[in-house]
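Example record used in the benchmark description.
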Amino acid sequence: MPGAYDDCTEVTDFCVVEATTYGYYPNLGANAFFLAIFALCGAIQFFQGVKWRSWSYMIAMTVGCLGEVLGYAGRVILHSNPWSSLGFQMQIACIIIAPVSHCLLPSPFIPNTYKSYQAFFSAAIYLTLKHLILTFGPEHSRLKANWYTWIFIACDLLSLILQGAGGGIAASASTNSAADAGSHLMLAGIIWQVFTLAVFLVLAADFGFRAYGHRSTHSIAAVELRRTLKFKLFLAGLAIAFVSIFIRCIYRIAELAGGWGNSIMQNEGEFIGFEGV
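Model output (structure tokens):
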């Protein structure tokens, strides 16, 4: 980051760790753990993609996991040298972009979703709602089922572009104004994502209430599906995923709103809890 410590490349008596953007040595164990987890997930998704011949899905998911691996590798580098420009650039760009770039996990509980894939992590939830609507009654939805995919993934694309561009600008900034511009772009992207998720939640809840209110009209297949434990667990997992994404975005807004080096950004425990976990 630009400023009085522009020439710092490692920790010295003058270039103290407290003067870095994060103000601490990233925890080696925690960051190595997340690096390994995402590397394992990437490998699993690669072999699943080959097995099921889901080539686009495999590429998108593997690239998303690779982004996380590179991001946490950057934090491992920062553990060794908190002033490392390479480590900072890797983690600020890759950890911001990768969670938005994961794709849909196919659901064995809803018909035909093994053939569905998209390029964004939150698109998993959007696409799942599409198939829930097709299964439990398109007439109960305010929008056509396919519209959820196109509208909300388009919104995620805009969020991805803003966050990615902002992260790249911030990571390579040589002036305070450029760093602030990158931060503001990232913040705008995350705020837009939160707004998108909120609108989606309203529409999803509306469909859920309407479909449940007309459950007597569901097909036999839909009723049998609704009664299975696997499907109930799937819905619970879907809800947890949505809440996790939403909380992560709220955390990122608070983190970036205070500017570089603020107290939230310099709290690794909160980063691990809200971003990593």
